Structures are given as C-alpha cells and as structure tokens.
Amino acid sequence: MTERYIGLCMAAGGVRTGVDTVLGEVRAHRAKLVLLASDASDRTKKQVTDKCTYYNVKLFSGGYTGDDIARMLGKKSSCAAVAFIGKGPWESVKEALRKGQTDVPATTEDRKDDH
Fold it and tell me: How far is CA 43 from the centre of its chain?
C-alpha cells in the first residue's frame, strides 16, 4: 500500500531524496513528512532527527532500509532520507506508515506526535 502512495507522490513531483536535499526542504518549510532509513549513519540520523524536531516536521524511521526506500522510489542506489513536500497523496503515505501498511515487510516507528 505504501509503495503505491509513494509512487503517486513521485509522479506528482512531491518527493525529494538525498540527505542534503531533504535537510534543505525541511529548513525551507516545504517538507511535510520525512522517511529516514534504518541503516542510515548515526550522523545522518542525528542531523535529520534534529532538523525535523526543530522545524516540527513529521519523521518516520526504523523499519525501512535505504535499499527498501530506493526500491519503493524506483531508484537503483540506496536512499538514506526522503522528504515529501506536499504534492501528491503524502497524507496517505503518512497514514499508511503510521498503520504499518506496506508491501515491504517492516515496522515503522512514529517519532513525533501528529500535531
């Protein structure tokens, strides 16, 4: 289920990948939701978590490796972080992640409150 929503967000131009790009989207208040790979480096996890906390952006991490995320996005190389910028059904992605609805066997960990 999550993969389909992410695909729709990609088609709508609402997905940004790469840690530097994701951090820029968070700083610019464009990121609505961030997905962080469970196998991201400790430094990357800290950077992304700190930025999302500071700018009050919803963050999901814990259940998807960088390869899982890359496969959902149709990319060949691993993705440590993905930002959803509000184009496409990003709210559906958020709900599917929150409920654990996925085609990739994983459990997501909700890091922030919905508000």
Answer: 17
